[in-house]
Amino acid sequence: MRNQVTPNDIPSEVRELCREFHRHGYKAWVVGGCMRDLLREKPASDWDLATSARPEEVQRVFRRVIPTGIQHGTVTVRLHGKSFEVTTLRGEGAYSDGRRPDQVEFVTDIEADLGRRDFTINAIAYDPIDDSLIDPFDGLGDLRRGVIRAVGDATRRFSEDGLRVLRAARFAATLELTLDPETEAAIAPTLDTFRKVSAERVREEWLKALRAARPSLAFNIMARTGMLEITAPMLASLSAVEWGFALAALDAADAGGACLRLAALFHPVRDLNAVGEWSTRYRFSNAEREQLLNVMKHRTLSAGEASDADLRRHARKAGREPVHDAAYLNSLVARVRHGEGSPAHLAAQHQAERLRALITDEVALSTKELAVTGRDLMQELTLTPGPEVGKLLDRLLESVLDDPSLNTRAGLLERTKQLRAEARA
User: Fold this and answer.
1) Which of 143, 134, 128, 139 lies closest to 112, judged by CA?
2) Contact yes or no for 274/236 (Cβ under 8 A)
3) pTM surpassing 0.90?
4) pLDDT in tens, 145-172
5) What sign results for the dihedral spanned by CA atoms 309, 310, 314, 316?
6) For residue 4, which phi and psi values (nearest 5 degrees)?
7) pLDDT tens digits, residue range 209-250?
C-alpha cells in the first residue's frame, strides 16, 4: 500500500495528455480504478482521465478523438497507438433509468466530479503536472483500512445507479476488501433500482467476480442483501448447509474457467432446466450454456462400474472437455462435502484419473477424428455419395470406441470391407 504518488508512476503517454490539456488552458487528472490500483501497488490495465475541457474542446486539442460516449461527456483519445478514455468533469443529476444520468451537467470542480462517483476508493484523482493528489472522501484511508465505502449517502448512490450494489459485492472479492456496514445496509432498500440493470451488465459483473481468488466473498454479499434472490433464485433458495457447500466448491474450483466455477456454484441445484434458463436469461452463448449443462449433467458418472468402451461413448455424448471438467468437478465436490482423502473423494479422484487416461486427444470421439474420411471410402471402395457413406463412418466410429487401435487408415478400410461383407451376408 502506497501513501503517495509521483509523476513518474504515471505512464509517459498519460503525462503527455495531461501536459497538452495544461498547455491549452485546461486541467486534467488521472482518476478511477487506475489510481486505486496504483495506490494498492497493483498493475493498472486502463488509464482514465477527467478534464475540465468539454468534449468539443477535447476534440480541438487532440487530432484523433473518437466520440465513444460523447452524450455523457466521454471520448476516447488515441495517442501513440493507444486509447485513453477522457471524460469531462460532471456533476450530479437524476438517474430515472437506474443506470445513466438523465442529462449531463458539466462542472469545473474536480471535487464535485469525484462526489458523484460510487465508492471512495474510486474517487481519488491525481494531477501529474502539478503533482497533486485529490482525495476529498478519504479513499486512501479506506484503502489502508481495507474498506469499501460509498461516496456520501450510500442510499442515494445506489438509487442513482443499480449496478453499483453488484459492483460493491464484486470489489469485495476482487480487491479482497470488506464492505462498510452502512454501505451494505443501503443495498436492500435500493434493490428496485438494481432490478433495472440489464442482464448483460449483471453477467459481466458475475464473470469478473468469478475471477477473484475467493469469489465467495462477492456471492455471500449478494445472498445476504437480496441481490441473489433477484438474479439467481434457485441459489437463494438453497439451505444454509447446501449454500455453504456451493461456496466452498466455488472457491476451490480452478479459477481459469468461468464455466467450471459456475458449475461448482450451481452444483447443489437439481433442476438443470432452471440453470439452462438462467444462462439464457443472462446472455451466455449457446456454446457456454451447453458446456455448463454438460459439466453439471455428467458430474455423477460412475466410472468404477463402466467399461472403457462405455466411458468413451459417454465422452462422445458429453464432449471431451466437458467430461474431463465433470470428473474434476465431481472430485472437487466430493472433497468439499466429505473431506480430503475420504473414500468418496478417493473414488472420485480415481474416476478422474481413469478418464484422463482413456479420453486423450488421440482417441477419436467423432467421425471427423477418424483416420479416414467419406471421400476416402468412396475412392477406395468405389462408393457413390449417399447415406451409406455416413452410416459406414458411424459404424467405424463405434468400432474405434470399442478398440481405439483400429483408428488407422489401413485398419479402418479393412474394417469397412468387413462391415460391407456382413451387410451382404
Assistant:
1) 134
2) no
3) no
4) 999 999 999 999 999 999 999 999 999 9
5) positive
6) -150, 170
7) 999 999 999 999 999 999 999 999 999 999 999 999 999 999
